Amino acid sequence: MATIEELRRKMEKAALALDFEEAKRCRDQIAILRGGATIDDLEQADFNGLERQKPGAMGLGTSQQKLKPPPGWKRPSKPDPMTTGRSLRGRRTKR
Fold first, then answer.
1. d(CA 15, CA 12)
2. pLDDT category of residue 31 using cuts at 50, 70 and 90
3. Buried b vs exposed e over 44-80: b needs ≥16 C-beta within 10 Å?
4. Fewest CB within a 10 Å sphere: which of 9, 47, 87, 95?
């Protein structure tokens, strides 16, 4: 099967041919093999959604995912400051 050296050569050829998607796949496979995975693990690995950390985003808590609102969600409108706090609910009335 594929060894790290074969994958490295394949990645370099793909990069020279400007096939960056293939080069990325080879790079990810090399990273998995260097991490101690076997060839069988490599064949079963799912690279979809694999995302590298952005440069400059190093530090505590930067690898946490950011929440994205669901499609079609709109932020609620802000309350009107002229009417805020003027509700009679919960207030005691004079008798």
1. 5
2. confident
3. eeeeeeeeeeeeeeeeeeeeeeeeeeeeeeeeeeeee
4. 95
pLDDT for position 13: 92
Helix axes 20-34, 4-16, angle to 10 degrees: 160
Assigned token pair, 86? 């003027």
Find out whether 46 and 24 touch, Cβ atoms under 8 Å: no
The total number of residues written for the chain in this structure: 95
C-alpha distances in angstroms, 84 versus 2, 76, 77, 90? 67, 15, 13, 14
**Which among 47, 53, 81 is positioned nearest to 65, based on CA atoms?**
53
pTM of the model: 0.45
CB atoms under 10 Å from CB of 4, counted, come to 13
Q: Which residues contact 15 (CB under 8 A, 6 or more apart)?
A: 23
Structure tokens at 85: 């706090």
